[in-house]
Amino acid sequence: QVQLVESGGGSVQAGGSLRLSCAASGILFSLYAMVWYRQAPGKQRELVAAITSGGSTNYADSVKGRFTISRDNAKNTVYLQMNSLKPEDTAVYSCRLPSSGLDYWGQGTQVTVSS
Question: CA 30, CA 32: separation in Å to the nearest integer?
């Protein structure tokens, strides 16, 4: 079965950095786009960053210049490097693999940024 597992979340001070990882199994990872989302309490889930199978990237305006999405197909892993973190970045971050007929989601990892 397909499984996505996020890791790397934690608590940091504003201005700090974290690197999130999403490890995939049960798929031909290199064939799929991967997407990072986040959801803060009381707010709708929003797209943070995406990377295509070819390596093209897109970012939400709120994180452009601060976050970088990348992938390592040999490790079946997608990363989200988060720099210059702000309190408003506090959320549960989840990875998503969009597939034909089904979307696969990880369980999420908490990121907390204190001021």
Answer: 6
